[in-house]
């Protein structure tokens, strides 16, 4: 090999090494699927996760937040997590029931009485046990955060007792437990992926049930939802969920960083929901929403007792532990 050839060969090697080094240093994409818009706590919490992870592992991961259902419904996103084509999501626990059946334990009607109790349960051994069960579904349960207590809205009339709900077409999450709750109360429940703005505008649905934070952020008062009843019938947790195929490939130190970031983002999300709830409710009233603050909760609870009667196995055991935690 002559001198010129050696020079070109050396240059080629240098270029190749530089390219390889650059390629090796390229950040790993972490796609987070969310069905709600940027103003919702789901996305706000994901943004906080990104901020914390970027600080802990600078330049190593590129967190991309896909909001507003860009990657599909929550059920579809969870399926993509199983495949490893999406790396994370922030979702409500209702649709998780199809993947982790025991999660229905925390979806029981009138089970929780306060945020203090939900924190005690979900941050304690019961919550950790539930998160550990995600693994058998090809998922990683990372941390619980808040969506808030769910309440009923509708476009027809004020609701004070179960009889007022009879026949109303109410959107529910894609969850057998939520369908059973509203059938028991007497509504005509319709499982449907979020968003549902068009269906409410067109009268396909009479109403829906969601926490105050969601009702306010979605501006449901502008699509005919003029009546709000503070039923607080189900505590609606959110959960950071990871893809097990993705997490299993991460170094142990990075796995810990992801979990720590999810914990910090969850605390941030809880504060967003709780600190703004009263203000959001007042804004809804100012917008003309009629609010029933004192529904007949005893009557609503009585209508939902068959949901408890259907419990069995591990799910029943978990519910019994939660009930005991309040004593």
Automatic annotation (TrEMBL):
Q: One Gene Ontology cellular component annotation?
A: outer membrane-bounded periplasmic space
A Pfam family found in this protein is DctP
Report keywords, A-Z: Signal
Keyword match Protein transport: no
Q: Where is the signal peptide?
A: 1-25
Instruction: Name the InterPro entries for this protein.
Output: DctP_fam, TRAP_DctP, TRAP_DctP_sf
Name the Gene Ontology biological process terms.
transmembrane transport
What GO MF terms are annotated? Answer: carbohydrate binding
Quote the Gene3D superfamilies the UniProt record gives. Answer: Bacterial extracellular solute-binding protein, family 7
Question: Coiled-coil annotation: which residues?
Answer: none
Name of the protein in question: DctP family TRAP transporter solute-binding subunit
